[in-house]
Amino acid sequence: MAFKKTTWKSILPGCFKAKTPPSETKLPASKQSSFRRVSLSDLSNSSFSVVSDLSSSLVGSNLHVFTLEELKVITHYLSKSNFLGEGGFGPVYKGFIDDKLRPGLEARPVAVKVLDLDGKQGHREWLAEVIFLGQLRHTHLVNLVGYCCEDEHRLLVYEYMERGNLENQLFRRYSATLPWLTRIKIAIGAAKGLDFLHEEEKPVIYRDFKASNILLDSDYNAKLSDFGLATDGPEGDDTHVTTRVMGTEGYAAPEYIMTGHLTTMSDVFSYGVVLLELLTGRRSVDKSRPSREQNLVEWARPLLKDPHKLERIMDPRLEGQYSTEGARKAALLAYQCLSQHPKSRPTMTIVVRTLEPLLDANDIPSGPFVYVVPTEDQKKESGVLRDGHEGENESDIAKYENRDEQKDEDKKKKRCHRQRKGHRYRHGIKTLRYRAVYSDTALYKIHGTSLYCTKPEPLPERA
Ligand SMILES: Nc1ncnc2c1ncn2[C@@H]1O[C@H](COP(=O)(O)OP(=O)(O)O)[C@@H](O)[C@H]1O
Ligand SMILES: [Mg+2]
């Protein structure tokens, strides 16, 4: 098969000083199968101005090259009110591309990730995202629309994901509890994304699988984002790749931490951690808990195989409204994914096959629908249910949470004060302030969608 000859200048034209007119900056689209995927190992990390004459290209990627000024304009000059979130790379802002910006680029909301020039990440992570997401397209991977590479500036432009990341949806104090079937739907979507990467002709190891890197669209379809740490898997007879240990505490596989040996099974371990988070509603590491419960895997794994003990660790916010049989199967699967021995873990294909039937559960108790209606003031304050959504704006949420933390702090001070004065302090009964509790069917009714049916149908537009 003849490969198309490409140079870095044609792959990443925006990074070079030559001013390319916008219409020429779109990469050629054609069938991926006739080209070899460019891998990170094909490239020199130090400088791609010396990397040229590559015998492959980012074919079919359809990536757009934006100028820094364009991205500033569409995000209102990276305004705080457009802030969506932040990880190690830098802040992410919501932007809106109108149909006049580029011929062939439809009007759409996007998310723009901006490299923090004082941060710990940089060109290598940016390049990994362009290389992997530019070439790999799948329903369960976030769509990379384009990038910007001007002088030292590095930005990435993705499709906008309405419900943000799974971490916020699962753990944020003011969001409605994710119902059981939604959790399973998310677990399946994320598993399909990983399975796709692992089953590529040249497997890709994602390496940073965690709740904050799983994004959700309006219908809770999960997509993997943040390919900054992704890397090519072992080739030929190699059983693993050896790398510097990078990833996130609480999610990284034990053998990878110990030896630096990375395989697709390291991702499977991290997947098991996220599955456990979905079951228990607990974070992989939570320093605010008693010491033996701080590491979720250490605490929960021994309890996963025993159905009686399992009940004790299921997320109390589910209020018992889950399929017992489904929970057992998912728990057993999590147990296998979290095996100390990589070879004992299931492949992601098996994970998908095991989870899919769980959507057909018919043993979910249909408990009473409890919906705590917030007052107008509470609605304003919490940001919950704004426009019928959970609060979308991370900066608002952070603001409210900070405010609440401040209140907690004030309470603590008062408590200390009372204790010092010899008063006996008693905890008040926690009320369901701002919290809406839904059952699966209730959410289905509210949204008027088929989200919670086993056979998905297209969603009607929400008002
Ligand atoms: N496409 C997107 N749509 C909506 N929110 C996003 C999008 N991409 C990122 N975010 C938000 O920004 C956060 C950080 O993004 P991520 O790509 O994980 O950055 P980092 O590489 O710094 O970890 C995410 O957890 C999410 O809350
Ligand atoms: Mg991230």
TrEMBL record:
Pfam families: PK_Tyr_Ser-Thr. Transmembrane segments: none annotated. Its main location: membrane. Residues 412-424 have a biased composition (Basic residues). One of its GO terms (biological process) is defense response. Residues 378-424 are annotated as: Disordered. The keyword GTP-binding does not apply. Residues 378-411 have a biased composition (Basic and acidic residues). One of its GO terms (molecular function) is ATP binding. Residues 78-359 form the Protein kinase domain. InterPro entries: Kinase-like_dom_sf, Plant_Ser_Thr_Prot_Kinase, Prot_kinase_dom, Ser-Thr/Tyr_kinase_cat_dom, Ser/Thr_kinase_AS. Its EC number is 2.7.11.1. It is found in: Cell membrane. Keywords: ATP-binding, Cell membrane, Kinase, Membrane, Nucleotide-binding, Plant defense, Serine/threonine-protein kinase, Transferase. GO terms for cellular component: plasma membrane. The keyword Kinase applies. This is non-specific serine/threonine protein kinase. It comes from Morella rubra (Chinese bayberry).
